[in-house]
Design brief:
By secondary structure, the chain is mainly α. The chain has one domain. It contains five helices and two strands. Strands 1-2 form a two-stranded antiparallel ribbon. 7% of the residues are buried.
């Protein structure tokens, strides 16, 4: 039987592939429901926009719940991770634009 530890052992650039795959698959499947919920405030993002917002929102939620992960460390480190921070900003822009 496969364990979570085994599935998370496969890494790319130090990040667990399983975590990213599960996050993006979950958002892809929940996008219609999420769009319906945000429709109450007049914002109807597409499924692609939700996929762009997955990484920035995951960093935000990890910060809100004080979960320190390699990804949040990279986002918070003031002396490194400039490319990652630029990627987060671009993804945030693409997710929020009309």
């Amino acid at each position: 039987m496969l364990s979570i530890a085994y599935l998370r052992s496969f890494r790319l650039f130090g990040f667990a592939i399983f975590d990213f795959t599960l996050a993006y698959l979950g958002v892809y499947l929940l996008a219609p429901l999420l769009s319906k919920l945000t429709g109450f405030v007049g914002w109807h993002p597409s499924r692609l926009q939700w996929l762009y917002l997955t990484l920035p929102l995951s960093v935000l939620f990890h910060l809100l719940f004080h979960q320190v992960t390699p990804l949040t460390k990279l986002a918070l480190d003031p002396h490194s991770g400039y490319l990652f921070k630029a990627l987060l900003l671009v993804m945030l822009y693409l997710g929020l634009r009309k």
